[in-house]
Design brief:
Structural class: alpha/beta
Strand order of the largest sheet: 1-8-7-3-4-5-6-2
Mean pLDDT: 83
Distance between the termini: 53 Å
Largest sheet: 8 strands, mixed
CATH class of the largest domain: Alpha Beta
Strand content: 5-15%
CATH superfamily of the largest domain: Phosphoenolpyruvate-binding domains
Shape: globular
Number of domains: 3
């Protein structure tokens, strides 16, 4: 029987596939696929871990004999019996051989399947035996972690992309997915994802949109109502997850999938056309990227440069040391060279809030105790608190500037003291390179405007920086005092809020008055609903994920700036800016169409 789960639509489109559940075990479980030739070795890992736990339990039983109640010794026997149960071990092995799950994921998936069976039992005593299975599974997971920690590459331990889809398409269902894990969706076998938590502008939602993967977040009952291997439809337009759909519903959504692909193919034909309005105004369309390899996708999508290289993704999903200067230099150099002379804007590491580093990479800087990470030690605050780390990154960026035009962008800067400290850090990094005789280039220095304090004092910022970039995601969050990753207040997150729009318009106006470059690199830049409004504010530089470029370019190509008229003033003064913006955009499109 078909079941519907409702959540928040965060990434448009339709995904259809078999459900893959990320286990809800209390142990943090690595989830990745193994290559076909690795299956035997993965089964051996599981067998070795099982033997290790059996040995531990037998040794423990010998140690406690004589001074421990017989009931507790009997429980140890039960756990040993479960470990050696052929049905349990063969079912777990099947997850590895049939689905190419890694051993930890296979254990957790089988645990989920068994616990559901226990929950459905009528006999209370049998239901209570679920805890025995959970304890055995967690011992197995811990044994796998101990045996594997020293030898498994860190990225592989968290990867969600390695593997082959040899059967039906797959969709991922999880309580939550970290931004770092979401990055692993590049080239993934997964066609879409569903999470039980998150809001429209959590980083997981942003990455899903940027990768053009249908997604629904905040679907609170998903893990309970969706089982492993269920057929699932993800309606990213309506925020609905359909479990076990009827043949008629399935065919309807497959038709919608085909229509969506036709529209994407049509937009792709705009790739080589410059973004010029009907009255001849050129608009710069830049790309946001996370990793050096994304630069090629940006070029292929027709980007005129990189408006935001999120360097923090070089620092994430690592166990051990942070990337050193040479590793960072090579990454930045690769991105710069890939863009073939087009500008690349590299943002210094923006760690904190919903993008934490692996705890083993934090050294003495620990964030796990922070009550509100969004207001804590993050972004430029984090960098200035660790000057050695910061200057390593600055030197790497300056060295990369030898190979092409580079802009250096500082996130979440809000105070004059931070401006001075940042300028001094850049000067020290440059002086070190000069003393070493290391080749380096000039960079333009810019500030992110994503805190209300920065927007209100942007004129002072423009005295020290060559350009500013408006990060609308955080600007909305901090202006409205809303945690954008918290689905409980997601309905209050409003990019059309008059205060937010006023700060954006004032920042653009101030930058133009100072003769400085200004761009928007947040989600609003890639949202067609805001294109005409931002153009009316005077914006001529948009930066977004490459997949969003075609739809924004289409909007610009159909716009005549003269028809926008008083749209900016109407939106800023309206009781309902959203309604005013939509009405003004419709009016402008109708007028532009009439004039052609």
């Amino acid at each position: 029987m078909s079941v519907q789960v409702f959540g928040l639509p965060v990434s448009r489109g339709v995904a259809i596939g078999r459900a893959v559940l990320v286990a809800s075990s209390r142990v943090d479980v690595a989830h990745y696929f193994v290559e076909p030739h690795q299956i035997g070795a993965e089964v051996d890992r599981l067998r070795v871990a099982r033997d290790l736990v059996c040995h531990e339990l037998e040794s423990l039983k010998q140690e406690v004999q004589g001074d421990t109640p017989a009931e507790l010794v009997a429980l140890l026997d039960v756990h040993v019996m479960l470990l050696n149960d052929e049905v349990l071990s063969s079912a777990t092995r099947q997850w590895i051989e049939g689905r190419h799950y890694n051993a930890e994921w296979a254990v957790a998936a089988q645990l989920d399947a068994l616990t559901r069976q226990f929950d459905e039992m009528e006999d209370e005593y049998l239901r209570e035996r679920k805890s025995d299975v959970e304890q055995v599974a967690e011992r197995l997971l811990q044994a796998l972690a101990r045996a594997d920690r020293a030898s498994t590459p860190p990225v592989m331990r968290r990867s969600l992309t390695v593997g082959h889809d040899e059967g039906a398409p797959l969709v991922l269902v999880a309580n939550d997915i970290s931004p770092a894990d979401m990055m692993q969706f590049k080239g993934s076998v997964f066609r879409g994802f569903v999470t039980e938590v998150g809001g429209r502008t959590s980083h997981t939602a942003i990455v899903a949109r940027s990768l053009d993967i249908p997604a629904v977040v905040g679907a609170r009952e998903a893990s309970r109502l969706v089982h492993q291997d269920d057929w699932v439809i993800i309606d990213g337009d309506a925020g609905i997850v359909i479990v076990d759909p009827s043949p008629m519903v399935l065919e309807e959504y497959r038709f919608r999938q085909r229509q969506g692909q036709l529209e994407r193919d049509r937009l792709a034909r705009l790739r080589s056309r410059p973004a010029v309005t009907l009255d001849g105004q050129r608009v710069e369309l830049l790309a946001n990227i996370e990793l050096p390899g994304d630069a090629l996708a940006a070029l292929e999508a027709g980007a005129e440069g990189v408006g935001l290289f999120r360097s923090e993704f070089l620092f994430m999903n690592r166990v051990g040391e942070l990337p050193d200067e040479q590793e960072q230099f090579e990454a930045y150099q690769a991105a710069v060279q890939s863009m073939k002379g087009l500008p690349v804007t590299i943002r210094t590491v923006d760690i904190g809030a919903d993008k934490p580093l692996d705890r083993l990479s934090l050294h003495e800087l620990r964030h796990d105790h922070t009550l509100n990470p969004a207001l804590g030690l993050r972004a430029i605050r984090w960098s200035l608190a660790d000057p050695d780390m910061f200057e390593v990154q600055l030197r790497a960026i300056l060295r990369a500037a030898v190979h092409g035009p580079v802009r250096l962008l500082v996130p979440m800067i809000s105070h004059p003291t931070e401006i001075r400290a940042t300028l001094e850090a850049v000067a020290r990094a440059r002086a070190t390179l000069v003393a070493q005789g290391t080749p380096h280039g000039e960079v333009q220095l810019g500030a992110m405007i994503e805190v209300p304090a920065a927007a209100l004092m942007v004129q002072r910022f423009l005295q020290h920086f060559d350009f500013v970039s408006i990060g609308t995601n955080d600007l909305i969050q901090y202006t409205l005092a809303i945690d954008r990753a918290d689905e409980a207040v997601a309905h209050l997150y409003d990019p059309w809020h008059p205060a937010v729009l006023a700060l954006i318009a004032d920042t653009i106006r101030a930058a133009h008055a100072a003769g400085k470059h200004v761009s928007v690199c947040g989600e609003m830049a890639g949202d067609p609903a805001f294109t005409e409004v931002l153009l009316a504010f005077g914006l001529r530089s948009f930066s977004m994920h490459p997949t969003q470029l075609p739809s924004i370019k289409q909007r610009i190509l159909r716009t005549e700036l003269a028809t926008l008229g008083r749209l900016a003033q109407e939106v800023l003064c309206a009781e309902d800016p959203h309604q005013a913006g939509e009405a003004g955009a419709r009016r402008a499109r109708a007028t532009s169409g009439a004039g052609r």
